[in-house]
Specification:
The protein is mainly alpha-helical. It has 3 helices and no strands.
Length: about 80
Amino acid sequence: MKMYTTVSAKITEEEREELKKLGLNPTVIIRKAVQEEIKKARDKKLIEKMKRVAPMISKLKLDEIISDIREDRER
């Protein structure tokens, strides 16, 4: 079972009233925004890692890799 914690955000009274008028749930909006920001941050980290390893990967020769894989399969 997932554990939850409470976070809060201050918004103007006008924003709160607008949310009510539009029938929007601030909890759902905040949860979705947090999830999106986590995804963006993870994607950014992954791209940074990929950029670091790209020079090493580009030095590898595809035909050698294929040959090594085939040799391993035959064992």
